[in-house]
Amino acid sequence: MGRAEERRARQRGGRRAAPRRSSGTPSNTGAGESTTVIGNPSAAGGRAAARRAAKGGDGKGRIRRLFTWKKIVGTFLGFCLLGIGAFIALYLAVDVPEDNAAAQAAQRQSNVYKYSDGSTLARDGEVNREIVDLSKVPKKVQKTFVAAENKTFYDDHGIDLKGTARGVLNTLMGKGAQGGSTITQQYVKNYYLSQEQTVSRKLKEMVISLKVDRQMSKDDILAGYINTSYYGRGAYGIQAASQAYYRKDAEKLSVAQGAYLAALLQAPSQYDWHAASETGRRLVTNRWNYVLDNMVEEGWLEQSERQKLTKLPEPQEPRPTAGREGQKGYLIELANRQLEDQLMEQQGITRSQAEAAVVDQGWTITLNVDKKKQAALEKAVKAELTSKLDKKKRKVDANVQAGAVSVDPETGKILALYGGVDYFKHYTSNATRPDYQPASTFKPVILAAALEESAETQSGKPIGANTVYDGTSKRQVVDANGDKVGFAPENEDDQNYGDVTVQTAMNKSINSVFAQMGVDVGMKSVMDVAGKLGMNTENEQAVPAQTLGTMGASPLQMAGVYATLDNHGKKVTPGILKKAEHNSRRVEIPDPIGEQVISAEAADTVTSVLTGVVDDGTARQSVANNPKRSGQKVAGKTGTSDDNKSAWFTGYTPDLVTSVGLFGEDAKTHAQTKMYGAGGFDRVNGGGFPAQIWASYMFGVTDPDARFDLDTDQGAAVRPTWTPTPSEEPTTEEPTDEPTTKEPTEEPTTKEPTEEPTTQEPTEEPTTEEPTDEPTDEPTGDITLDPVRPGNEQ
Question: Global pTM?
Answer without folding.
Answer: 0.74
